[in-house]
Here is the input.
Amino acid sequence: MKRLLSILIIVTIFIVGCGSGKEVIKINEEGFELFSQGKYQEALEKYNQAIEEYPDFSTSYANRGMIYFELGSYDEALKDVDKAISLNSKDAVAYSNRGYMKLALGEVQKAIEDLDKAISLRNYFQEKESLGITYTTRGTAYGLLGEYEKGIESFDKALKINKNDKTIYNAKGILYKDWGKYEEALQSYNKALTIDQSYAYAYANRAFVFFITKEYDKALADANTAIELNPIIPQVYNTKALIYSEKCETDKAIEIYDFIIDKWKNYADAYIGRGNEYFKKKDYGQALINYSMAADYGNNDALAQKGYLHEYLEQDEEAIAAFEKYLEAVPNSYDITIEIGDLYQKQEEYEKSIEYYDQAIKINPDIYNSYFKKGLSLEYQEKYEEALKMFNKVLEINENQVDAKNEIKFIEEKLKR
Here is the structure.
């Protein structure tokens, strides 16, 4: 997530009159120049100097925090922005920076709170572009929460400030893609490319939308253009591999995944993709190795893939272990909860299966499948009255559910004997 967001690092938050104030701003400006050149360690030294000489200047902490964040020192980064806010409660950039950090770290709701606070202090931004970046970051956050309309509204406010900012159109396209509005996503990427025809990320993201809509030739053309413009975007290679997979060119897909993993060893999606291709080739050992590697690099979906593979191979205990590990990371997954219940039901551990079906019902009480499966586990234990309640619950949700009607008929005939 972190690389998709704009970085807000501003060297002048409020006007300082004269004397020492001008000197600390000058040091901050030098730090910003070094940051812009990717010289993070040298930039850090500049901000350290600014803080040592002028320890009450909040901007230095806000800026140093972003350097720490880029260097992966997340605790130090958050301490710095917290310090900036404690020194100046109206430091809009500090709130915006902290919102950015929390978003990148997955604390989306807390990020929105900070971004809202920064926006409420809009008059304290020295430059309007900084406010625009804050709106953009908030739009991304809303998208991750599935609050798509709020996200679009935030992007549109950003565009009123930075109307020719290609990155905002790109971010807007990503939100529309996640929303399933592919035409609108394409329009946003097209607008970004109208602004800058050499913008590789827009080609990369447009390629993925073309992949989703099964326009594989267009997807491949955009992916190749993105790679030509910027050969260090791993996601676009992943899209190419997915295209070849859909075209049943399994070996070509594996070749691309090999390239990705060789270049970006910890890119977990590539291991999952390569595992899927080995599964197609019935090389289940290699598939499992790749899913395990993806899980080691923090991809929770790989745990689910491991579970499905073990289930396919009728290795039920291993499947349950993988699925339960997944639920530790994603506790409200309805589908995986049901899978575990089904495996226990298959093993005739009916009470254990009912525990998971009950969990599924708590996650989403409006899906009849949970009640039906629970009813079966009760029926198999000859707990007919309880089973009937479950099957009747199914019919409350879907009065046309034939299987539930058949089970009710079977039980009623059983009870008459």
In short: The first helix runs from residue 20 to 36. Confidence is low (pLDDT under 50) at residues 1-20. The two ends are 62 Å apart (CA to CA). The CA atoms of residues 40 and 67 lie 6 Å apart.
